[in-house]
Amino acid sequence: MKLLLSAIVLSLAAVQANAADLSRYTGDISALGVDAAALPQPAVPELRSYPGSEEAVALAAEAAADPDKFIDEHTPAEVALAFGFVPTRFMVTSQARVDSATTRITVDLSRQRLVLQSAGKTSEFKISSGLMPDHGTPGSGHCFAPDIMQEMHYSSLYNKAPMPHSIFFNGNIAIHATEAEWKLGQPASHGCVRLSAAAAKTVYETVLAAGKANTIICVKGVTPQN
């Protein structure tokens, strides 16, 4: 038992555990008859930057100069800071928020499908997610709130490639239409979720009508190897 307690104490002291991990550890310790409150607690990680900080101001200035280029080339945390949001803005961790969404978009990487559920109707569309191993679509296992929506976006990162009906949901990751519809059903993008022109328009207009506050985008599965 001493060895077990030592291991748990060391893990709590050395690892910045999340709330779920900490709850599990303290539950295990209590079952052993030990007062969890007497054990060292993991430190709360300090945010490297925050809205209004020197870095955030610099990012905001860069974003103002060319918003499209900034969104394409920066991480979700940097995009959040530039527009005055906390870095965790994009990811939804509240199960209540997920459950209350009236419009739900599920990106299934394994099946290369997008499922749209809204107003009692379910639609399914073929997608092309990010091509492995270097450009896989991130975020599997997590849900996101829709962010910037643009009826027509041009990627400054990829030679001004058109991205009709773009819905950004994880920094520079977006759901949008593609001209390469013959590739749908298999990974082919640089990380975004591609749809046919008709499907992208449907998804975009559905989210627009429902409102971003009532929409959730969840990513699941594992990208297949082509």
Please characterize this protein's 3D structure.
It is a single chain. With 226 residues, the chain is of the alpha+beta class. The protein is built from seven helices and ten strands. The N terminus is likely disordered. It is 32% helix and 24% strand.
Strand content: 15-25%
| CATH architecture designation of the largest domain | Beta Barrel
Shape: globular
Order of helices and strands: HHHHHEHEEEEEEEEHE
- Distance between the ends: 49 Å
Determine Rg (CA atoms, Å).
Answer: 21 Å
Report the major sheet. Answer: 6 strands, mixed
CATH class identity of the largest domain: Mainly Beta
Lay out the secondary structure.
Blueprint: H1 2-14, H2 19-31, H3 54-65, H4 67-73, H5 76-82, E1 91-92, H6 95-100, E2 103-108, E3 113-118, E4 121-126, E5 142-144, E6 149-155, E7 161-170, E8 173-177, E9 193-195, H7 197-210, E10 215-220
Parallel strand pairs: 2-10, 8-9
Antiparallel strand pairs: 1-5, 2-3, 3-4, 5-10, 6-7, 7-8
Helix pairs in contact: 3-4, 3-5
